[in-house]
Records
---
Amino acid sequence: MIILMKKNATQEHVDRVVAVLKEHGLGANVSPGTQTTVVGILGDKAKLGGLDIRLMDGVEDCVPIMHSYKLASRDMCPEGRKVEVGGEVFGGKKLMVIGGPCAVENEESIMKSALGVKAAGATMLRGGAYKPRTSPYSFQGMEVEGLKLLRKAGDATGLKVVSEIVAQDQLEDAAKYVDMIQIGARNMQNFRLLKEVGKSGIPVILKRGIANTIEEWLDAAEYIMSEGNYNVVLCERGIRTFETATRNTLDVGAVPVVKERSSLPIIIDPSHAAGKAQYVPALAFAGIAAGADGLIVEVHYNAKAAISDAAQQLSLEAFADLLQKVKQMAPVFGRDV
Amino acid sequence: MIILMKKNATQEHVDRVVAVLKEHGLGANVSPGTQTTVVGILGDKAKLGGLDIRLMDGVEDCVPIMHSYKLASRDMCPEGRKVEVGGEVFGGKKLMVIGGPCAVENEESIMKSALGVKAAGATMLRGGAYKPRTSPYSFQGMEVEGLKLLRKAGDATGLKVVSEIVAQDQLEDAAKYVDMIQIGARNMQNFRLLKEVGKSGIPVILKRGIANTIEEWLDAAEYIMSEGNYNVVLCERGIRTFETATRNTLDVGAVPVVKERSSLPIIIDPSHAAGKAQYVPALAFAGIAAGADGLIVEVHYNAKAAISDAAQQLSLEAFADLLQKVKQMAPVFGRDV
Amino acid sequence: MIILMKKNATQEHVDRVVAVLKEHGLGANVSPGTQTTVVGILGDKAKLGGLDIRLMDGVEDCVPIMHSYKLASRDMCPEGRKVEVGGEVFGGKKLMVIGGPCAVENEESIMKSALGVKAAGATMLRGGAYKPRTSPYSFQGMEVEGLKLLRKAGDATGLKVVSEIVAQDQLEDAAKYVDMIQIGARNMQNFRLLKEVGKSGIPVILKRGIANTIEEWLDAAEYIMSEGNYNVVLCERGIRTFETATRNTLDVGAVPVVKERSSLPIIIDPSHAAGKAQYVPALAFAGIAAGADGLIVEVHYNAKAAISDAAQQLSLEAFADLLQKVKQMAPVFGRDV
Amino acid sequence: MIILMKKNATQEHVDRVVAVLKEHGLGANVSPGTQTTVVGILGDKAKLGGLDIRLMDGVEDCVPIMHSYKLASRDMCPEGRKVEVGGEVFGGKKLMVIGGPCAVENEESIMKSALGVKAAGATMLRGGAYKPRTSPYSFQGMEVEGLKLLRKAGDATGLKVVSEIVAQDQLEDAAKYVDMIQIGARNMQNFRLLKEVGKSGIPVILKRGIANTIEEWLDAAEYIMSEGNYNVVLCERGIRTFETATRNTLDVGAVPVVKERSSLPIIIDPSHAAGKAQYVPALAFAGIAAGADGLIVEVHYNAKAAISDAAQQLSLEAFADLLQKVKQMAPVFGRDV
C-alpha cells in the first residue's frame, strides 16, 4: 500500500505516519515529491489491523497495490486451474456447453429437454429447482422434487447435471442429486452460503452479480476457495447498465481480464444477458471468441410454453444450430467441443 | 397488460391472440391503430399461468401496466404505514435518528459510543455483529457476543437497538437481543432470508441493493409483507454508478418516488453512500430535505481507530453537530426530532 | 401511443381525454380493463403538437409504441444499407478492417504505420488530427497538417482514409483530405455537427456516446440521414459502467440489436473499449462473432512511444496476428476479409 | 505520479525506468517493497511528453496523484470564487434561484412566465432558444428570435437572463441578448465550444454531462478558465444510471465533493433530474440542504400546455411554494435568498 500525503502536509505529519508504521512493525520508504510526498509501506499491511491510515492528519489517500484475493489469483496457479465434474473438465481444451430449461417443470418436460440437449451435443444438463424470483407471487420452483427429476433426466441421458441453490439448507439435498451447484448472481455476496459451499467441496458455478466488479467477483470466489474448495467455475452473465435493449449488458471484456488475473475457468451465460432468444447466439459466439471456456444456455423442448423466462429460452433446433457453429469456431481458437 | 402487435401482423395473428386469451378465461379489447394494433387484456393476467404472449406470432411486445407488489403499494394504505419499535415510531411526525458504530468491537467501545449517541439525541442505537465483508480475510464481526454487548449498551442508555443479520440461522439470536433487524444491501434479494424475516414478525430495516431499482426494492419488501410482517422500514443507502468520488451515489430522488408508490416509511443512510465522513452531513441533510422519515448514521466514539469502515464513521462531536442542524431543519418540513 | 388511465380515473376523465384527441383530429379506442382503462390513439400523434397527454387529469402514463427514427430503421430498408467509400463497401459480405494510430504525429510515423497496416491486410487507414482531450493541457492534435499527412500516407499505400472532426468548421478541410469522417462518442449528440455532416454527404462513422442508449444512437443517425446523407456506419466503442478493469464496457449485444432495428452497417472499436492492448484481440473477435461488419483498431508502428493512448495501441505485429485470426473466423460467419 | 513495478520485475527493469526518467530530467525515488517495488517521480511529469511509462517492461501501472485541473481547483482559490452577473453573485451568501420555461415559445408565453417567476422571488430568468433534441423531428427552438424575446422579458421584469447555446456560431448573438450562457450536458465535452466560451468572457453555467465524472467536469471547466474566463458556475442536473423512476439520478453528493475540490460555485437543476414536476421540490430542497449555491428550475405559466418537457415544468404556484420553503431553509444553512 502507498500513502499519499496532502499537498500541505508538514514534516511532522510525515514523521507521525512513519512512527505509526514502525509501532506496527512496518517499514516506511518516504519519497518527497515536488508536489506531494509519498510513503511506501514495507511489510505486510495486515499488521495494521483495523487502523485506517487515511484518517491520520496530513494524509490524502491510500492506494492499494495488491489484490485482496490470493487463491483465486493467476499468480498462485499460472498454468490455470481445471475443474472436473464427473469426467468432464472445465478449463481444458474442450469447450463445455451446458444446456437445459430455466426451471424443471415436470418429468416429461425435463426429459424431453434433456434428450434434445444431449442430441445437440451438449456436455451437461441444467435445470432450476429453487428459483430466485423478483416477486413473491411468481413461480418459485419444484424444489427437491425438481432436483430428483433433474437427476433422473441426467441419468437417462448420461449428462452430468447442475442446479442452483439459494440457501445453505438446500446444500444437503443438492449434494445428493446434482454433480455441480450454481450460485446465482443475487447470491454472489451471500458470504455465508459461499462458505458452506466451500466446506462442501462440491464443484460450483459462481455467477457474477449484476453490479459487482471483477475484483469483488474474485473475492467471492476466494470465500469458497479459502474453505478448501478449489472447484470454482466463474460465469459472466451480464451486468446492469443504463441500456435496456438487452436484459443485461454482457461484459465480454471480463473474459480476458479474468484470464489475466485469475487461474479459474470462466464460462458465459448468453441467455440472461440477452433476455431475448434472438440475441442469444450472437452473445454465445462473442463469449467463445473472447476466450471463454464454455457456455451455459437456457434451452426448452417447447420454448414458447415455458413457465419462466420463456422469452430467452432457445428451442432445441436453435440450440443445435448454435452448437453447430460453436464447433466450427472452436478450432480457430485452439479449442474443440 | 397490453399487447402490442407487430406492424406487419395479420388479422390471423390478432385473432389467434384473442382466441388464446379466451381459452384462458380472459377478455380482449382490440384497438386497430394506424401503425400497429393494440390488444388490451380484460381480466386477471395471472390466469395465463406461464404462457408468454410475447412469443406468439405477430406480437411485438407486452407492456405491464400494474406493479407486481400489492401490500407495499401506496394504494393499499394511502395514509402511510407506521412501524413501531419499542415505543418509537417510523413514519410519524418525528424523525428517527439511528446512530452507532459500523461494528460492535468490544464492551468499552460500544458503551462509549452508545452514551455519546444518546447524549447527542439519537432515537436508536446501531452496531454490526455479523459483518458481510467483500474479502474473506477481513474482520467478520463478533457475532452473537456482539449482539449481547449491543443489548447491554441499549439497556444502559435506554436506546432501542438494531443490528444486521446475513443468514436465517442468526434470526433466533437476533430475536433475543435486538429490537429491530436490518437486511443489508447485499441480501436485498436473498429471498429465503426475506421470507424468514417475514415469518418472524420482527421490525426490519430493508436496505436497497446497490444495483436494484425501486420497483425491485418494493418487490423485496413484498416478500416480507406477504408472510405477514408489515413492520418494514426502507433504507436508501446509495446505488452503484460510474462516479467514484463518493463510495456510492445517494439516490435522493428515491425518497419522493417511494412516498408516491409505497406506504412504507423510508430512511437514509448517508454513511455508506458518502464513504467519507466529511460528506456525511451534506447527504444526511439532503435526505431529510427530500422528505425521508429518518437517518441511520455510522458514529464511533473514537472514529479514527475503528476496525472497519473507519473513513466513513462520524465522531461523537460531528454527530451531535449533525443532529443539531437536523433539529433546526425539521420544522421547515413539518417534522420534529 | 397508448394512454394508461389511473386506477381511480373517472368516466369524466376518460371522456375528456377522448374529447381532446378528437379536437386534434385523432380517434380513440377505449379499453376498459378490470384494473385500469387504456386508450389507444388512432391517427398520427404528431397532430397533438406540444400537448402532453400525461398531464391531463386521470392519466397515469403514455407508452410510445413506435421508434422516433424512420430512415435509420430496418423497416425502411429490410435488406440493409451499404455504405461505399472509394470502392470499399461497409455492410456487404466483406469485413472492413480499419487500422492506424490514435493521432497523426509526424510524417515518418504515419507513413510507417500506414505501410504496416496495409501489409497486414487492412482495408482503410485511420489517424486523428483533431483530438478531443479531457484536459486542455493534453496534446490536441496536428489539425489540418495532420489531415494532409494522413492523405499522403493513404495515397502512398492505396488505403482510403478516415479521421475525426470535432467542429463544423473543420468539415471543409476534412472534405478535401479524407474519404470518410468520424463523429466521436463525445459528439454523438452535437446535433449541429450532425446536421452539417448530413448536408455534406460525406460517408461518416458515427460512434456511440458512452452513456447513450441504442435508441438515442439511432436518433443521432437519423439527424444525419434526415439531411440527405445515408452513408452512415455505426460504431460501438464501449459504454460507461461501474466496471473499471477495462476502459469502457464493450456492449457486444448492441450488434444483434442494431441489426434487428436498423438497416445501417455497424463496426466495433475494440481499442477504446479495452483501454489496454492486451485485451483488444479478445474484444475484436467477440465483435466479429456477434455479427459486426468490421473493426476500427488503433495500431502504431512504434506503439510504446505513441504520444496519446499509448496503452491501447497495438503493435504492427499484434495487428497482423489479429487480422490473421479474423480471416480464419470470417467463413464461419459467412464473411470474408 | 507513482510507478508500480510488476511483482516479477527485475532490477534491470527498475534501473531502466529510473534511467528513462533521468533522460527526461526527472528524479526517481525507488521504494523496494516486500511484494512490489514503487518508483516515485520527482519533478514535473509533463517533461515525459507523450511517453507512457506503463508500456515499459516490468511496469504494472502508473497512479496519478494530482488532478489535471489547476485553475478550477480549490487550492488555487481556497476562499471560493464568486461569479457576478449584472449585480447578482453566485457563490456568495445569497442563494441564486433561476426560473423560467424549458423553451421560449412566443412573446406572450415568455412574458407571463417571466412575470410569475419575478413575483415568486427568483433572481434570474431562463428560457431555451436553441434546443438540443434527441430526435430531429422534435421542436428545435426559436433560435435568435427566442433570444430577443427572452431579453425583452428580462428587461420588462428586471431579471437577468440565461440561455443555452449549442454551437460556437451562436455565441455572437447570445452575447448580444443574454447576461449568461449555458452549456448543456450534451456539450460538456464539446471542447471547441468550451474554448470559444472561454475566449468570450461571458459568465457561463456549465452543466455536468450525464455520464461524466466530477473530475471530467472540472477538466471541462478548466477548458473555459484556461482561455481566461473564470466566470464559471457548475450545475449538477442528474447522471444516467440504471434507475428509471426519475429521468436521471441527481448526484447530490457531487455538491460537497465539488466544494472540497473546486473553488467554483455550484447550483442544482432539479427539473431535468426529476423529469416529473411532482418530484422537483424534493430534489430542490435536497440540493440546497447539501450546500448548493442555488437552483435552476423549469417553470411555465401554463405548464400543462408547454411545447417541450411539459411533464417536468412547475406551475407558477408550485414554483412560488418551492421558493417559499427555500427561504425558510436558507437560514439553517447560513444562507439567504
---
Amino acid sequence: MSSTYGENLKLSIFGQSHGPAIGMTLDGIPAGLPVDLDGLQAFLNRRAPGQNGWSTPRREEDRPEFLAGILDGYTCGAPIAAVIHNKNTRSGDYANLKDCPRPGHADYTAQIKYGGFQDAAGGGHFSGRLTAPLCIAGGLCKQWLAEMGIQIGARILSIAGSSVSDDPLDPINPQIPDFGGDFPVINQNAGQCMRQAIEAARKEGDSAGGRIECAVTGLPAGIGEPMFGGVESRIAQIIYGIPAVKGLEFGAGFSSACMRGSQCNDRYTVTEHGFQTTTNNSGGILGGITNGMPLVFRVAIKPTPSISKPQQSVSLSKAEVQALVVKGRHDPCIVPRAVPVVEAAAAIAIYDMILGNTQTNRRK
Amino acid sequence: MSSTYGENLKLSIFGQSHGPAIGMTLDGIPAGLPVDLDGLQAFLNRRAPGQNGWSTPRREEDRPEFLAGILDGYTCGAPIAAVIHNKNTRSGDYANLKDCPRPGHADYTAQIKYGGFQDAAGGGHFSGRLTAPLCIAGGLCKQWLAEMGIQIGARILSIAGSSVSDDPLDPINPQIPDFGGDFPVINQNAGQCMRQAIEAARKEGDSAGGRIECAVTGLPAGIGEPMFGGVESRIAQIIYGIPAVKGLEFGAGFSSACMRGSQCNDRYTVTEHGFQTTTNNSGGILGGITNGMPLVFRVAIKPTPSISKPQQSVSLSKAEVQALVVKGRHDPCIVPRAVPVVEAAAAIAIYDMILGNTQTNRRK
Amino acid sequence: MSSTYGENLKLSIFGQSHGPAIGMTLDGIPAGLPVDLDGLQAFLNRRAPGQNGWSTPRREEDRPEFLAGILDGYTCGAPIAAVIHNKNTRSGDYANLKDCPRPGHADYTAQIKYGGFQDAAGGGHFSGRLTAPLCIAGGLCKQWLAEMGIQIGARILSIAGSSVSDDPLDPINPQIPDFGGDFPVINQNAGQCMRQAIEAARKEGDSAGGRIECAVTGLPAGIGEPMFGGVESRIAQIIYGIPAVKGLEFGAGFSSACMRGSQCNDRYTVTEHGFQTTTNNSGGILGGITNGMPLVFRVAIKPTPSISKPQQSVSLSKAEVQALVVKGRHDPCIVPRAVPVVEAAAAIAIYDMILGNTQTNRRK
Amino acid sequence: MSSTYGENLKLSIFGQSHGPAIGMTLDGIPAGLPVDLDGLQAFLNRRAPGQNGWSTPRREEDRPEFLAGILDGYTCGAPIAAVIHNKNTRSGDYANLKDCPRPGHADYTAQIKYGGFQDAAGGGHFSGRLTAPLCIAGGLCKQWLAEMGIQIGARILSIAGSSVSDDPLDPINPQIPDFGGDFPVINQNAGQCMRQAIEAARKEGDSAGGRIECAVTGLPAGIGEPMFGGVESRIAQIIYGIPAVKGLEFGAGFSSACMRGSQCNDRYTVTEHGFQTTTNNSGGILGGITNGMPLVFRVAIKPTPSISKPQQSVSLSKAEVQALVVKGRHDPCIVPRAVPVVEAAAAIAIYDMILGNTQTNRRK
C-alpha cells in the first residue's frame, strides 16, 4: 500500500476497520507548535459516526491516544504518533465478501491485488474509518494554519435527490466561520431540503451522493511549486485519497471549460488589501501558485456503495452471477461526515507546502 | 520549483519558453525496452504548434535530441535525457509583464514568488511549451504500455461556445484507435461545430476552453495503491501539472454526486472476458485500484488566458489599475493540442504505477 | 525530524525514550508474506536490555503489539503497525539536561534545534531505545529475505581496550549461521577477551566502543541502482541512522585506500556456483550493484557517551563551564546490543532494494 | 537507475561516458541566487582530466552549457539544467567488455542487471566521467553556501604506497582556504612523496588508492534531522554515489571504536565564539545534527580498477577463465581528481539539508 503523504511533512496512516487500532504518524513538524487537544477532539467529533439520522449507528468515540511527539501541550520535534483503539471489532458479518464482492466497494480490487490475504472485515484498510487518523493529522495542521491566519472551511453544496443546492459562496470574501456543525450549509432552508433527500434515500434502503465545497482564506501569495508541485496537484493527491471522491475542480473548474477567455480571466485591481482580482475563477491559483485570493475547490462524493437493496454481484469461486444483500446498517449519505475530512486533507496539503516554501523572496 | 514526478520512474522537466532549450530526464526505466523514434515524433507532432487555424503561428519543430539512455533502439538502463532546442527565442515582447501581469497567467504569482528574478519571456517555465518534454516522456511510456496491450486515447469532448458535445464514449468498450488526428472526436459533425466555435472566438480576439476525455484500455486489475497512491491520486497529480487544467473527474465523476447508490454502483457480471461490470461509473477504479474495466477520466481546460481584447490589469510598481493589450498571437483554443498532453500524462502515471506494482499475487 | 526510510517500502519510526510508547509503521509490503511472531520475538530479545553485565539494568520486555497489517499469520497488504509500550517512563532524572548537555549526546544539538521544546528525558527521540522499532521492521524483513535464501548475520569484530579482534570472516563463504547469541563472535577466546575489556571499562565508570561486521549471503547479482541508489548508498543511509555509528566501510573499505589496483581488483573465475571472484575486496558490490558474492561491511560504534566519571560540560543559561556527573546506570558498551540492530538495518535496506528491482532482465 | 538525489532540491544526473552528452538538472533552488560561471569553471577545472602525470590523457574541456534556470547571472527559480557535450565519443575499444568484464569495474554487474542492453563504452553511465555533472551541481551549491559563510574544503590525506600521510587537520579550526590546487595537501613534502607513489604505480602499469579528508566550516548548529535524515546519512548517500568510494567515517570515525567514552566524548567549553568543544571526535555531528563545530569526514577511494597489467577475467559466453589486458590509458590514481568531487557531493548534501531546515527555532 502507499498510505503515506507529504513532501516535507511525512504522514503515514495505518489500520483496518475491524483491527485492534487505527492511527497515524506525522513526521517533520517543527518543535514548539501549540496543540489544543480539546479543539482537536471537537474537530474529530464532526466526523464521528452515530450521532444523527444519516450516519451509521456504529458508535466509536474516535478519541485519539497520543503516543509520541507532544509534550506539555507543544510539539517536541519528534514524530507525532496517535492511535484510536477500535472497540467495535471483527465480527462474522464479512465472511462472504472475499467471494461475493459488494458493488462499488474495493472488495473485488482488494481480492485481485492481495490475493485473498487482505483484511476484508468492514472494508479493512479501505474503510472510511481510516479518515479518522487523517482527521487527527489534518486537525493539527488546521490549528497551526489558524495560528498563521489561514482558515479552512468546507460545507455541503448539494445532495443527490435534493432539488436545491446551497447558496453560492462569495469567492472574493468567503465567510469561513459560518461553516461547521454537523450539516454545514449557508442556506438553512436548502440544508433542510438536502436532509430530506437523505432521509428519502434511507427509507428506500438506498444512499445519496453529493458535493462539498471548501474555501481557504488568509493564504499568502506564492505558495506552491510548478509543475507537479502546484497547489492543485498536491491537494488533488490527498483529496483523491479520501474514499468515494470521484471529482475535483478548482475555482470555476468545469465551468471554465464552457467559458471564453474574456469571461474566465480574473481582472486585477487594487484594493485596500493590496492587489486582488475582481472575480475568482482561478480559485486562488495561477500556474500552480497561490495568488492571495481565497482558494476554492469542490469535491464530488459518490453515494455510499453499501445499500440494503438487493444487488447483482458474482461469486468469484463459482464464476457466476449471484444476488447480494449487504448486511449491517451504513450511512445513507457520507457527505456530511466527509466535510471535516475534506478540510483535514486540505490542511495537510497546505501545511506541507508552507513547510517546503524555500523561496528567499529576495527582490530584484 | 518542483518539476519532478514519479515514485518509481523519476521524471525531471526543465526549460523556459524562450530559453536555449527545453528538455527532460526520465530515470528508472528498465533496460531493453524498444524505442520507436519515428512513432514518438508522430506523437509529438500532434502537440506541435502552428499547423492549423486554432494554434499559435509560432513554429517549432519539437524534434527532440536524445543525449542519453537509448542505444541502438533500446533503452540501456541509464537515465534517458532529451532536449529540444528553442529556435524562436527571447525577444523584447515580454518586458512589461513583470510590472503589468496578464490576467489568467502566472505572471503575478511568479513575480511574487520569484521576486522579479523569474524568466518572464513567454511565460518562462510556466509556458505551455513545457508540455513538449512531458510528451517526450509520455510518448515513450505510451509505447511501452502498448507493448503490454495497454492503449491510451483521448479526444475533445466539448468546446466553449459550441452547442454540441462529442458523442458519449462506450465506457465498457471504448474504441481507442479511432482517436488521433489534430482534432480527435467521435462525431465529426460535432467536431465541425466545435471548430466553428473556436474560429468565432478567434475572430473576436477571444479564446475558448473545453473538455477532454481520456480512456485507457487493457489495464490489468490490481494497479494502484491506497490510500494516497491510488490511481486517481497519481493521475491527478500529473494532470494538474498541465497548464490550464482546472477540473478532473473519474468515471461518472461529478454526475455521481447526483446519483443514488442503486444507480451508481456498477453491478458485477461474468462475461467471456471474465468478471466485468455492466456499467462503468467507477471509471475502472475502486478503492484507488484498477478493476480491469476501462479507465475513464475527463479534464476541464480553461480558455487560453492570452487574448487580444484589451483587459484590465494593474501596474505593480505604481499600484494602480492599468489597461493591458496582450501582444503576439496565441492559440485561440489549446484544447486540441492538449489532447496528446493528457495522453502523455496518463501514460507516465500509469507506467510509474506498473513499475511499482510489487504485489506478489500469491493466492490464499 | 525525518524518521522515515525507504524508496519502495516506507518505514516510519516514532517514540521517545520515556514517552508512552515507541513504534513503527511499515508500508508497501506485499500481501501474503508469512510472519513468525515467535521468531521475531527471539530476534528482538537479542537487542533487549538488562540481561547481562554490559547492558543497562533498565528492563523492558520489548514485546511489540501489532495494531495493523498482519492477519492470521500473514501480511494482509495494509501498512504494518506495531507499538511497544514503555513501562519505565519519565522520571525526574533528566531535568538538568536542557541546561547542562551531556558530552557525546544529542542534548546540545536538540536544545539548539528544538529550542527547549524537545523531550529530553532519556534522550527522547535520540535514545538508543528507538532501535527497538527498527528491529521490529528489520526482523520482519529478515524473515522475508530468509524465505528467498538471503541470510544476514553480524558479529562483534573488536572492542576498545581489548588487545584482540575476532578472527577474520571468510569473505568468499562466510558462515552466517554461526553468529547469534548475546555476544556473537567466531573466536570464543577473543570474545572472552573483549568481554573483559568491557568489564574493565565498567569498573572504572567508563565505556568502550567497538566494531561490528555484517555479512549477507544468497543475494542475487543485479540488486542496486547507480548512482545514488547503489547498495552502499542505501545501506549507509540507514546504518548512519543508528545512534553512535561513526564509520562504515564495504569490502576492503579503508584498506583498499592502501592498495594498488593489482591487489584490490577481485579476479573473476568460474566455479560450480557460476561466476565468482577469488577474493572479495569489493564486498560484493561493483558500481553500486551486487555481483553475487557475499555483501560485507563493517561499522564503527563509538563508546557509550553516558559514563559515570565526572565530565566537563557547560551551563547554557549561565554560559559557563560546569562539571557534570551523569546519573543512572547505562550500558558500558552498546556494541553487543547493536549487532542485531545492524542486521535489522541491513535487512530493511536490502528488502527495499529488492522490492524496487524493476529490471525486466530481458536478454539481448 | 536511480541517478537522482535530494529531499528538498532534486538533482538528476544523466549521460554515458561515450554518449553525445552528459548533464544534470537541479530543481528546487530558490530564485535570486547569484551564479559565478567563471568561478564554477575554475572549480570544474580541478576535476578535469588530462592535465598532469596522474590522470588520463583523454582531454575534455568539461565546459557546461546552461540550458535553463539561470538568467542574467541569477537563478530564476526554474530548474537549472546544464550539459557537457562529449567530444571524445564511442570507439571500438570497448566491444569486448560485455563478454569479458574488467575486474573491479561495473562491467559484470551491468551485464547481469541490464542484460546486455547497457552502454558498455567507457563504462557507460558508471564512468567516473559522470562526476562532472555532479561537480556542476556541487560547484553551484558551494557558491551559495559560501555566501552564507559556509566553506567546504577537501584534501588528499594519503596515497597507497606512500609511506607518509598528510599532516593532521586542526579539527577545531581547520584552514579551509589553504586547500585547492591539483594536488591539495597541507604538508607539501608529504604531497611530494605521494606523487612519487603514484608515479611508481604508473610505471608498473598499476594504480593506487587513497584517502580524502573533507572539512566544512561555518555550519550553524541545528542542521540535520534524526533518525534517517541525519547529516551522516545524507552525506553518506551521496558520497557513496561517487565511483570507487569504499569507506566513509565522520570525526574520529573508526578510531572512536578503539576509544573509551572518557576519551571520545568531546567536552564542552565556552569561548569567545560561544559554546564549543575542546576536541572534535564527533566531527561536528551529534544525534545526526550539526553542533556548530567543523564537520569533518574521511573517504576511502579504491585504486583505479583499470590497470595495464594483465589480469584474470572470464568469458561470460564461454564460461571459462580468460586473460584480459585493459587497453587505453587511464588515471593511475583518481584520488587527486576526486577531491573536488567530494567537495561537490558534500555541498549538495548540505545545501539540501539547509533548504529543508524548517525548524522554527522558537524558544521555550
